[in-house]
């Protein structure tokens, strides 16, 4: 079968086409034929060697996608041939609290990912999709979407009237914008691009701040919120923005740290504000299958639509990666089979 592998991981040009043997489903396993694969920021970090230790050059990448079950192994009862399914990228985290062993099966990192004509996954980790969630919406859920759901709903207990601050207009931020509006919350979002902020307003953002125009964007947020600040902050900016997030937080604010975006330092100029604001800071890693089911059920009931920037053919996957890496787009980049 046709597939792609990550190669030597020194630039966005290391992705290369290859062929692999047809997978065989063992006990408890299912074979999926992908329909669409969605790119996320860590896909680029893997190719450039900035996402943790270097991986096996033969690793098939791809963290999230949607596809059809085409074969199942012995003892599989969770899914059937013909089911359209998704899977959270931590395949071993099915329910319960986070534990360190979830990293032992990370799709596209420790195990081959979605960028192949067929992918082998644990059947118990798969989720059947409702008919009213189209492929392009389903393909973008497993990483950015599930992470946003975990951050706002499972971790921060979002409620109507909360103000959610999203840093930037990447996949997690845009997913968080939709989840927040679904729950009756208000949303503030930052970007260096007025064009991207305009799109964010069209998607429902209540406050938009260009951080090039306002380098002290926490002060601008305070100004626009009558000095109240944000109840929940989806911190995707990395170490260098954490001090700003603390400054932008409301009393009893919750800051959820997401991803491994590199930074030079962690400036927290007003350390005492952890106490005077009673701030909670928590790091999260994606989410469990049980969380994913809750998220999918909410989407099915709320008719949410994904923002898609561009879709590439499977054979053009390297071009899709370069487009994602340029970071000039807003919305998801898809690869179709």
TrEMBL record:
Segments for region (Disordered): 1-25
Polar residues compositional bias, start-end: 8-19
CDD domains: MDR7
InterPro entries assigned to the protein according to its UniProt record, in alphabetical order: ADH-like_C, ADH-like_N, ER, GroES-like_sf, NAD(P)-bd_dom_sf, Zinc_ADH-like
Stretches assigned to the Enoyl reductase (ER) domain: 10-335
Pfam hit, one: ADH_zinc_N
Protein name: NAD(P)-dependent alcohol dehydrogenase
């Amino acid at each position: 079968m046709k597939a792609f592998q990550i190669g030597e991981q020194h630039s966005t040009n290391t992705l290369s086409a290859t062929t692999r043997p047809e997978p065989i489903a063992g006990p408890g396993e299912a074979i999926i034929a992908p329909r669409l694969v969605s790119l996320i920021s860590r896909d680029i970090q893997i190719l450039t060697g900035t996402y943790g230790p270097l991986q096996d050059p033969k690793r098939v990448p791809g963290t999230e996608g949607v596809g059809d079950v085409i074969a199942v192994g012995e003892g599989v009862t969770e899914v059937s041939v013909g089911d359209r399914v998704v899977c959270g990228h931590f395949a071993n985290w099915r329910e319960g609290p986070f534990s360190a062993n979830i990293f032992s099966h990370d799709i596209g990192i420790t195990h081959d990912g979605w960028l192949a004509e067929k992918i082998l996954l644990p059947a118990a980790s798969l989720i059947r999709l409702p008919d009213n969630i189209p492929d392009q919406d389903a393909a973008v859920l497993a990483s950015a979407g599930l992470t946003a759901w975990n951050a706002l709903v499972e971790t921060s207990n979002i409620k109507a009237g909360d103000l959610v601050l999203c840093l930037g207009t990447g996949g997690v931020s845009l997913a968080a914008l939709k989840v927040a509006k679904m729950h009756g919350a208000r949303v503030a979002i930052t970007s260096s691009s007025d064009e991207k902020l305009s799109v964010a307003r069209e998607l429902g953002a209540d406050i938009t701040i260009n951080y090039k125009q306002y380098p002290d964007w926490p002060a601008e947020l305070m100004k626009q919120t009558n000095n109240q600040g944000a109840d929940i902050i989806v911190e995707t900016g990395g170490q260098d923005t954490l001090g700003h997030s603390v400054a932008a937080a409301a009393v009893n604010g919750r800051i959820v740290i997401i991803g491994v975006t590199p930074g030079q330092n962690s400036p927290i100029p007003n350390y005492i504000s952890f106490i005077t604001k009673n701030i909670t800071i928590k790091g999260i890693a994606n989410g469990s299958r049980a969380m994913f089911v809750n998220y999918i059920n909410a989407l099915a009931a709320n008719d949410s639509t994904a923002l898609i920037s561009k879709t590439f053919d499977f054979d053009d996957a390297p071009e899709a990666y370069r487009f994602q890496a340029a970071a000039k787009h807003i919305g998801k980049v898809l690869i179709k089979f």
